[in-house]
Amino acid sequence: MGQALDLAAAAARDGDVPVGAVVVSAEGEVVGAGRNLREVDGDPTAHAEIVALRDAARRLGTWRLEDCTLVVTLEPCPMCAGAVMLSRISRLVLGAWDPKLGATGSVWDIVRDRRATHRVEVIAGVRATECSQVLLEFFAAHRSPTTREAGPWAG
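Above: the chain sequence. Below: its structure as tokens.
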């Protein structure tokens, strides 16, 4: 999660929502890394999870990321949850829940839907306070004083 938090900080420096993700092999090696690049690349699909999954698939030479773990600072949205499931990731480790768009257990649970052909183990709350704080600070700095509020990642 430490490396994912570092990637989230890099995304924030570029003006993007601070989310970072890494893909870890069964042997514990980081085989993919990503951060939000939507603003940098002008790409609505350039979420940290998608970038990390693409990086891992390229490095491993296969889209089947079986026995890999995705570690991400914020609960994946529906697009990313679908990509996680379809990539055959075995385990998802997340920091902060996303009460607005979360799709791995909070609002929706795409990765563990009984109708899915592949289910993903979800481990939540890893370094949740740190992951939430990065988001709170980012959004506090990007809101006008009249619209500032605690936000969905408070606690």
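Residues 95 and 126 are 5 Å apart (CA to CA).
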